[in-house]
Amino acid sequence: MTTAGPVNALAFDSGLDFDALYDRLNEVGPWEWRGTESDTYGDYLTSRPAEGVTLRIFGGKPDWVVQISLRADAALPRDEIDRLLNGRIFPAIGAQNIRPTDTVY
Q1: What pTM value is reported for the model?
Q2: How far is it, in rounded angstroms, from Cα 5 to Cα 32?
Q3: 8, 96 contact by CB (below 8 A)
Q4: Which residues are CB-neighbours of 41 under 8 A, at least 6 positions away?
Q5: How many Å apart are CA 60 and CA 34, to the nearest integer?
Q6: Residues 9, 65: contact at Cβ < 8 Å?
Q7: What tens digit of pLDDT does each residue of 36-75 get?
Q8: Where are the alpha helices (DSSP H) in the chain?
Q9: What percentage of residues in the chain have a pLDDT greater than 90?
Q10: Tell me, what's the pLDDT at 80?
Q11: Starting from the edge strand earliest in sequence, which strands make up the sheet with 34-38, in order?
Q12: Most buried of the four, 1, 23, 90, 97, by CB within 10 Å?
């Protein structure tokens, strides 16, 4: 898979547990999220909002990481993803202390 750059990740704090985060993300939209189980990574949430774009949320209350993966030909630009995260999604899930991180799964 060719990417437009390094995998990007943002750490954030939220008082929501896994199930509540899943419910709230799907309630607020605009993307559809699904829960995934992995022997390697544990439970995590994933969304594919557009061709070439994958978002994954790992961690557990209160420490979460959203990993943003974009292919070079992604149908959704990074600035639009950031706009939706910061303007709609993070406020809806009560995200605080949002910061870049090297912690990826």
Answers
A1: 0.87
A2: 24
A3: no
A4: 58, 105
A5: 16
A6: yes
A7: 888 887 899 999 999 999 999 999 899 999 999 999 999 9
A8: 18-28, 78-84, 90-92
A9: 79
A10: 94
A11: 34-38, 42-50, 53-60, 63-70, 8-13, 96-100
A12: 90
Q: Which residue has the tokens 């070079």?
A: 72
Whose structure tokens read 């419910």? Answer: 23
Classify 80 as helix, strand or coil.
helix
CA separation for the pair 43, 33 (Å, rounded)? 13
Q: Which two tokens stand for residue 97?
A: 């202390």
The reported pLDDT for the residue numbered 102 is 84
Are 63 and 13 contacting, i.e. CB atoms less than 8 angstroms apart?
yes
Q: Are 22 and 103 in contact (CB under 8 A)?
A: no
| CA–CA separation, 57 and 72 (whole Å) | 21
